[in-house]
Every structure is written in C-alpha cells, then in structure tokens.
Design goal:
The structure holds three protein chains of three kinds. Chain B is mainly α. Helix content of chain B is 77%, strand content 0%. Chain B has a single domain, classed as MetI-like (MetI-like fold). Classes of the chains: A alpha/beta, B mainly alpha, C alpha/beta. The complex binds adenosine-5'-triphosphate (ATP) (2 copies), iron/sulfur cluster (2 copies) and magnesium ion (2 copies). Chain C: This is ABC transporter ATP-binding protein.
Chain lengths: 334, 294, 329
C-alpha cells in the first residue's frame, strides 16, 4: 500500500497509543442466531487524538464503544488501556472508568429527570469519593461552557435546552478528569445551530486538557469538523481508516466512496440498495460484496479481483495510523 | 443553596397538593383517614384498656343504641363505641405495619429481580410466582397458628404472604427505569449496583411505592379482620375480633345488629378511605411517572 | 394559481402558564408541483405550521389568518369537507411517525386503512393498491405482510410515505422525514421523495432543520426563527448565499466535506434558543446575532427584498440588500 501524504502519517504515529482494541469480537444471541455485532476490530486512539468512527446504522459502532468502556464483555480479543489489558473485576473497572468516560447520544435520556444539574455532575465525583465536590462540579460546568455555573446548578433537565443538556452530560464526564472521552453520536439529536458549539467544545477540550476522544457518528461532516483520524466501519469491521483529509477527500474503499457520494453537495450519487446489512448473516468473501458498486459495475472484474471479492476472506486491518483500506480492488489499483 | 432546594421541594409539594385536591374521592378518603388516625392516636388520653375488660364493665347487656351507649353494648355490657375506638388502635397499627413490611419486602425483592437480570433475578421471580399462587389467607392462617397469636405474628403473617404483587409491580418499574440511558451513563461513571439501585431506581419507584403502600394498608386491615374472624388474633381487641365476638355470641339471634354493623362499618370506611387515597395518589403520580420516563 | 397560499398565519397555544405564540404572521405560497422547504431550529414552529395547514392542531391552539388550499380556506371549511381534503388532497407524514405505526397490525392493513375509510378502494381490491404503493416507495409487495418491528427505520419511513400517497394527494407535507435516519438511508428516502415530486406532479412541503437536505430536494426555502419566516427564496441561493445571520449560522452548521475552511473548525451559534413565552423585543434574533446593531432590539422587522424572489428580515438586508444584488449582477 502506498502512502500518498507522508507528513500526515508522521504526525499521527508520533502519538502514544492510549486506548486500543485488539482483534475485538462481540457477539449477541439474536433470535436463535449469533449476531456478530463487532467482528474483528483493531483500533487505536492516541494521546490527544480525536478519532471518528463512522458507519451506517446497525454496523456495530455503539457496541464497539460500549465494549471499549467495559460495559460489554468481548467474546474474544482485548481492550487495552495504557498498554495494559482491561480487567473486568468491579474494582478495576471502576478505576478504569475514571480515565475513560462516555457521552451518550440522547442528552435528554442520559440525565435522570429527578436529579438537578448539580446532582448529575456530582455523580461521578461522589462515586469515586473525590474531595471538594462543589468545586469540582463548578469547574466542570465552567469548562463545559455553562457559565456562570451557579445559574444552572439547581435546574432540572427539562428546564434546559438540548445543547445545555449535552453540556451537562459532558461536564459530568469531565468532572472525573478523564483521559479519553467516548462520545456516541454526541450531536445527532441536537439542533443544527447547537451542533457546532458542542463540537467546538470538544476541540477546545482537546487543546486545553489534551483530552483524547473517540467520536461515534454516521455524519461524515462531523468527522471533517473535528477528527484527526477516521475509521469507517461496515458490518462489524473497519473497512477503511486513516487521516481525515486523506480518507474523506480521496476515499479508497467503495463503501467510503458511497457514503461520501450521498452527501448533499456531491456531484455523483451512489445510493446503495439492497437490504440493510444483517450481522447474523455476514456474507463470505468481502463482506461488502453484495452491495459493492465497484463489483457490480464490473470494474473489479476488469482489475481481475472479482473472484476474490466473492470468495476470499479479507484480512483484518491493523490498528495503524496511516491510510489503509480493506479492499482487493483498492489494493490492485493502488 | 439548601434553602433554594427547599423552596423547590416546597413548590413541587404544592403542585402535588394542587393535583391531589382535584381528586374528590381521594380528598374524602384523606379526611376520613386523618380523623380515624387522630382518634386512634389520642384514644389513651380519654380511655384505656379497661373499656374492653369484661370485669370492669357492668352496663346493661345487649343494650341497643341509646344516649348512654350511642352504639349499644355487647354480651358483657361493654360499650361498642368505646370498644371500636380502642380497637381501631390495633386494627390500624397492624394495617400500617403489615403494609410497610409487605412493601418493604416487595421493594427489595422487586428491585433486585429487576436489577440483577441473570440467575439471581430468575430465582427471585420463581419464588415470587410461587408465593403468588399460594392461597395467601390460608398460608397466613397456618403461619399465625404455628407462631402463636400476637400482634407481631399477625403482622409477619400478613407481610410474608402479600408482598409478591408489590414485588412484581416494582420489578416492572425497575426494568423500565433500567432501560433509560442515564443508567448506562451512571455505570460508565463507575457506579456499582448499590449506587444505581439506591440513587436512580429507588427515587423513580418511590411515587409508586407511596400509592401501593396506601392500598396495601387497606388490604392488610381486611386480612387482619378475616384472620381474626377465623380465630387467629393478637389477643387484643380489634375490629376483626369484635366481629368474631358478635358471631361467637350469636349477636344476630339477639337482634343485636349494632354489634355486627358498627365494627363492620368501621372496617369498610377505613378500607374505602385508604383505597380512595391510594387510587387518587396513583392518578396524580402516574402521569408524572410517565412524563419522567418518556 | 398556486396550490397552497398562506396569508399572515399565526398560531397561539393557550396553556396554563399563558400564551405561546408558536407561529407569528407567516405568509407563503406554493405552486402546483413545486417543493417548499421549511427550516429552523427546534421550537421555531415548523411542526405547528404544518399541522395548521390541515387544521390538525389541538383545541387549545388559536389559528388566525388565511390558509388557501386550491382556493378554499382550510380554516373556515366545514368539518365534512375538511375530512375529504385530508388524505385526498393533502396528506401529512408526521415527525417521528415511523414510531407511530401500530405494532400489532401488518403494514399492508395500515396502508389500506385510509383507502377503505375514504371508499377509494373496495376491500377486495385494496391489496392490489397496497402492493402498487409499496412498489412506488421501493419496497417489495410481500412486505405488506410484515409487522413494523420487522422493518428498519428507513423502511418504516417509506411505509409512512406510502400511507401518505395512498389517496393520491396533490400535496404532501413531510415533517422531518429523514431526521434520525443514517446518511445512506436518508439518501434513499430523499431520492424517493424527489422522484415522487418529479414524476407524479405532487407538491411538497418539507420540514427539516438541515438546510442541506432541504436545498437538495426543494425549489424554495423558508427559514423560520421564533415563529417567523426570517428568510425565503430559491433554495440554492438561500443555502449557498444566505442573507439573514440566522440562516448563515444554519447553513454553516453542516460543513462541506473537503472544504478547508471548515476543517477542524466547527461553526455554531452561541446563546440559547428563544423562550416562546418571553420573546426578545424587536428582531427576536438579536440576543444571539453576531452582527446586531444598536437599533435591533427596538426594530420593527419585516421581510425586506433581498434580490430576485428573495427576502430576508434583517436590518442589514434592508440597508444593503439591493446593493449586494447589483454588485453581483
Ligand atoms: N444487546 C443486544 N442483543 C442482540 N443484538 C444486539 C444487541 N446490541 C446490539 N445488537 C445488534 O448488533 C448490531 C450492531 O448494533 P449497534 O447498536 O452497535 O449499531 P450502531 O452502529 O450503533 O447503529 P446506530 O447507528 O443505529 O446506533 C445491530 O444489528 C444490533 O441489532
Ligand atoms: N400542544 C402544545 N401546547 C403548547 N405549546 C406547544 C404545543 N405544541 C408545541 N408547542 C410550542 O410551540 C412552539 C413550536 O413548536 P413546534 O413543535 O411547532 O416546533 P418545531 O419547529 O416543529 O420543533 P422541532 O424541530 O423540535 O420539531 C414550541 O415552543 C413548543 O413548545
Ligand atoms: S473487495 Fe471487492 S467487493 Fe469488497 S469492496 Fe473491494 S471491490 Fe468491492
Ligand atoms: S435585524 Fe439585527 S439582530 Fe436581527 S438578524 Fe439582522 S442584524 Fe441581527
Ligand atoms: Mg448506535
Ligand atoms: Mg417539529
């Protein structure tokens, strides 16, 4: 595989890996079948790095995020933090969760309607028995952009706007001084005008506190807005990853190309048809082959890789910082 | 800040009262309850155990209601009025304590069954279902007979047999609460089982508990009376033992309707009052629950 | 003649705490076969406006102004006539309605229901029409026998569109038809809507908070803020060269992938959405407006012309609107 933009590569590899998934598999029993929601994922988040995980609905993004947090146990493979494999004893998990924090998609649902903003933000510090709770809460709120904090302390979630609620959730995570933030669709349910603010907040936190983040989304614009690196997931596996500029301006995997082509301003659309992918029936060969436009148009056959597309399993991409795609056609055509 | 929290609480309480006031039945029930409970509490200031003593009471036997004995007298010449008044203490005490015990057991097991989804939850639900199909009155009878008659055993007998429906209710609510994303957030913050059940689940099932306790008091009073009527008593005068007495002494054949009617009416009024209150609480609190859950 | 004409429509909800002016003096027109997009943030009154079009608002809402559908005033229409108009002339795809499908009925029966209610098909023939409708929205006919939980979000949204199409209406009102769908499914649904508008000569009112989606499907755009239309015009122009500061913020919120200006620079709008019960004076946008002038808090705003078939309610447009158009010409 040739690297087209060497400098970008160097910058990203210079970062020390903080959170890592190694050959992660997560399976669920689903109506008598096995759903391979995460099916072999290697992914690394470096110190102070923002990685975007994109992919369509049901491809396993949330499951991967939850597994990284230890909320779900992997069927096989390991989650590693700071070079150590994650241990699932409740003490160890509790310590781990001071370092790695979660922000959920739905800011209304992720706040207990019976708790005030103060109680919601103080929850983490209380669980971990941090001293100076009031100061910690005030600081966290201020850092999340809710200033002055006193104005918000005693409000209930229903008295806040959507953007403010999401800030409270972020403040709740920041109160523990985490190293990594895992955000599952942090702005999907927010208004367009609020969206930019929350994203700017995440960028600022990275710059000021050196916070790393894994942002789960199906919105490529979001990745473009804030991420250093992007990983594209399809049916439980990462099919393309690399620096944002490279992957989003010169995508190599046909799936990434299709995702980019349906953005409103793009000239030529590749709207994928076919049933949505089903993790209980992952096709053989390249898992994307049934919907692949490159294969369907015969270009793969021209390059002589169509037989492999249909019949030969692809290797799992390593957790490398450079641009890479799991596609025979991309490999064959460079 | 705490004064601020207080004003908030007060305002919430005010709103609750506004809603409750609109429930006519509930309000009527509440008035009856307040009167009944106050009377029971202040009873020792005016009368004592003596009113139930066969020896101390030398009034006319089987006297119909009169100015001296507004509710008449029984076979030993005891005033029904004073007996009912004194007996209300036992009936209400057993009702309240048994309801608390019922709801206590039901809450702990319900939350545990809803929270621990694995084999623990499954076992608890098995046990609950088993208790649910047991004829609870018979079980209570047997239990009370084995343990011997005292206020404590009656309370135990009622509590141990009537918790399963509460447990089911609480489990359903727990499951609903645990599906909310804020539980996931709390776990991600490092919260353990104790934290999640006491900080998130319990406050969210609390309104339900209030309504359910109120209803349980009514049913406990009925059970106590039934037990007493069937011969299992705390050896203290209660409305149930009075009914039993009227039966034993064949009040009907003496035409002493007051002996039967008055304790019966008392039970009916208090049970109705609790039920009305409980239902009103349910209607007032439930839309909130739904709003909070949605 | 235009199919739909709104003239100074206002909607006020009366609630215990007072009055909520959700829509304030909106005037819009929609030609036959045309598509109008309504954008704006949450609470700006988009859904309220959509429901007012078919008088679907709750009782505590007071509607004033005129809503002409094919020349008939919806607001003064007799009840029976209104029932006929709903579905047959204009139908609505409600916001979040894909969750509103009845979980215990097969979707075929749910699509057939309006047909049977309006006597547009005999019970025996309804099945054929349902199959046709499903095909129109790109679902195989056997899906009629599925239950809602067996469909994905995008498929459910298609079923909702099939239901709206059932009585061959001339106007479809789609409230956030693609919000909460992922990009690929959103693209499928948008393509479907575009085809329907183009091929079946159906007019469309589409509501969204995503300007780029609206610009993609609609000919004209209206941007709402705090119950008012603050900008309207041809969709490409409004999207690419918005004139009202609020439209500018909305347009910038969704970046163009590949545009260096937005790389690592998300753009948003500070401040909080207005409280409809306590709206700011003058231009309601002034507390959040980055280019507000001293006069804005007391200004009487109206839609000032901002170019060819364009207008925007901002003092800057009033003062310079025409200049900029001339500059460009
Ligand atoms: N607890 C579970 N039991 C069974 N199947 C599950 C479970 N959780 C997830 N799945 C399945 O795993 C797959 C991946 O789900 P996941 O929620 O991770 O997708 P996602 O990428 O986050 O999608 P979305 O964008 O819609 O949130 C889905 O097919 C889902 O049905
Ligand atoms: N039934 C109602 N009673 C009182 N107020 C209402 C009612 N429905 C809506 N409102 C208020 O009217 C205003 C406009 O609401 P509307 O639903 O039209 O907004 P919207 O633009 O569709 O928002 P969204 O993007 O969130 O759907 C809001 O402030 C809302 O709170
Ligand atoms: S490997 Fe073949 S089928 Fe898979 S994405 Fe590449 S070209 Fe398409
Ligand atoms: S009128 Fe004033 S406050 Fe309103 S948008 Fe224009 S500049 Fe901003
Ligand atoms: Mg998800
Ligand atoms: Mg709406």
């Amino acid at each position: 595989m040739t690297e087209t933009q060497a400098p970008a590569e160097e910058v990203t590899t210079a970062r020390r890996t903080l959170l890592e998934a190694r050959d992660l598999h997560v399976e669920f029993a689903s109506r008598g079948r096995r759903a391979r929601a995460v099916d072999g994922v290697n992914l690394a988040v470096g110190e102070g790095e923002i990685v975007a995980l994109v992919g369509e609905s049901g491809c396993g993004k949330t499951t991967l995020a939850r597994t990284l947090l230890g909320l779900e146990k992997p069927t096989s493979g390991t989650v590693r933090y700071g070079g150590e494999p994650l241990r699932y004893a409740s003490r160890a998990l509790k310590d781990y969760r001071r370092q790695v924090q979660l922000v959920l998609q739905d800011p209304m649902g992720s706040l207990n309607p019976r708790q005030t903003v103060y109680e919601a933000v103080a929850e983490g510090p209380r669980i971990h028995g941090l001293p100076d709770e009031a100061d910690v809460v005030n600081n966290a709120l201020a850092r999340a952009g809710l200033r002055p904090p006193e104005r918000f302390l005693l409000r209930y979630p229903h008295e806040l706007s959507g953007g403010q609620r999401q800030r409270v959730v972020i403040a709740g995570a920041l109160a523990l001084d985490p190293k990594v933030l895992i955000a599952d669709e942090p702005v999907a349910s927010l208004d367009a005008s609020v969206r930019g603010e929350i994203l700017a907040l995440m960028l600022r936190l990275r710059d000021e506190l050196g916070l790393s983040a894994l942002v789960v989304t199906h919105d490529l614009g979001l990745a473009w807005n804030i991420a250093d690196r992007v990983a594209v997931m399809y049916l439980g596996r990462i099919v393309e990853s690399g620096p944002v500029e490279q992957v989003l301006t010169a995508p190599r995997h046909p799936y990434t190309q299709a995702l980019l082509s349906v953005l409103p301003e793009s000239p030529e659309r590749v709207v994928l048809t076919g049933e949505p992918p089903d993790p209980t029936r992952i096709p053989g060969g390249c898992r994307f082959h049934a919907r692949c436009q490159v294969l369907a148009s015969g270009k793969a056959a021209e390059a002589g890789v169509d037989a492999r597309c249909r019949g030969e399993l692809l290797e799992i991409l390593p957790a490398s910082a450079g641009a890479q795609a799991a596609c025979y056609y991309a490999d064959a055509t460079g | 800040m705490s004064t601020f929290t207080w004003t908030r609480r007060k305002r919430a309480l005010g709103r609750f009262w506004e809603d409750f006031r609109k429930q006519r039945g509930g309000l009527a029930g509440l008035v009856i309850l307040v009167v009944a409970v106050t009377l029971a509490v202040v009873a020792p200031l005016f009368i004592d155990q003596g009113v139930t003593s066969v020896v101390e009471n030398t009034g006319p036997r089987w006297s119909p209601p009169s100015l001296d004995y507004p509710f008449g007298t029984d076979e030993s010449g005891r005033s029904i009025l004073l007996m009912v008044w004194w007996g209300s203490r036992t009936s209400l005490l057993i009702g309240f304590l048994a309801a608390l015990l019922t709801v206590g057991i039901g809450t702990v097991l319900g939350i545990a069954a809803g929270h621990f989804r694995g084999w623990i939850g499954a076992v608890i639900m098995r046990v609950t279902d088993w208790f649910l199909v047991l004829p609870s009155l018979v079980t209570a009878l047997v239990l009370a007979a084995i343990l011997g008659g005292s206020t404590f055993t009656i309370i135990m007998a009622i509590g141990v047999t009537s918790w399963p429906s509460t447990a089911r209710l609480i489990r359903a609510q727990t499951l609903a609460v645990e599906a909310r994303p804020y539980i996931e957030r709390s776990k991600a913050l490092g919260g353990g089982h104790w934290h999640i059940t006491t900080r998130h689940v319990l406050p969210n099932v609390a309104p339900l508990l209030l309504a359910s306790t109120t209803l349980q008091v009514a049913s406990a009073i009925v059970t106590e009376s039934t037990l007493a009527f069937l011969g299992v008593t705390a050896n203290k005068t209660s409305w149930g033992t009075m009914l039993r007495g009227s039966y034993d002494w064949n009040a009907a054949s003496y035409g002493a309707w007051w002996y039967i009617l008055i304790p019966g009416l008392c039970i009916l009024a208090v049970v109705m009052a609790f039920t009305l209150c409980g239902r009103a609480l349910e209607t007032v609190l439930n839309p909130r629950l739904r709003k909070a859950g949605a | 003649m235009s199919l739909l004409e709104l003239d100074d429509v206002s909607v006020t909800y009366r609630i215990a705490e007072g009055e909520v002016p959700a829509v304030r003096g909106v005037s819009l027109t929609l030609g036959s076969g045309a598509a109008l997009g309504v954008a704006g943030e949450s609470g700006s009154g988009k859904s309220t406006l959509a429901m007012a079009l078919l008088r679907l608002l709750p009782r505590d809402a007071r509607v004033t102004g005129r809503i002409l559908l094919d020349g008939e005033d919806v607001l003064t229409m007799k009840w029976g006539r209104l029932r006929a108009v709903r579905w047959a002339q204009a139908s609505i795809v409600f916001q979040g309605a894909q969750h509103g499908l009845n979980p215990v009925h097969r979707i075929g029966d749910q699509i057939a229901e309006p047909l049977l209610v309006h006597n547009l098909a005999k019970p025996g023939e309804a099945g054929k029409r349902v199959a046709e409708l499903l095909e129109q929205v790109g679902l195989p006919a056997w899906r009629a026998r599925s239950y809602p939980h067996e469909l994905s979000g995008g498929q459910r949204q298609r079923v909702m569109i099939a239901m709206a199409l059932a009585c061959s209406p001339r106007l479809i009102i789609a409230d956030e038809p693609t919000t909460a769908l992922d990009v690929m499914v959103q693209a499928q649904v948008l393509t479907l809507i575009k085809e329907l508008v183009a091929e079946h000569d159906i007019s469309l009112v589409m509501i969204s908070h995503d300007l780029s989606v609206l610009a993609d499907v609609c000919d004209r755009l209206a941007v709402m803020y705090a119950g008012r239309v603050v900008e309207q015009g041809p969709s490409r122009e409004v999207f690419h060269d918005p004139r009202h500061p609020y439209s500018q913020a909305l347009a910038a919120a969704f970046p163009t992938v590949g545009d260096p200006a937005s790389r690592l620079a998300p753009k948003g709008l500070g401040g909080d959405p207005p409280d409809p019960m306590d709206l700011p004076t003058g231009c309601s946008f002034h507390p959040r407006c980055p280019v507000a002038l001293e006069e804005c808090p007391t200004l009487d705003v109206e839609l000032w012309p901002a170019g060819d078939r364009r207008a925007a309610a901002c003092v800057h447009v009033r003062d310079h609107g025409r200049d900029r158009v001339q500059e460009k010409a």
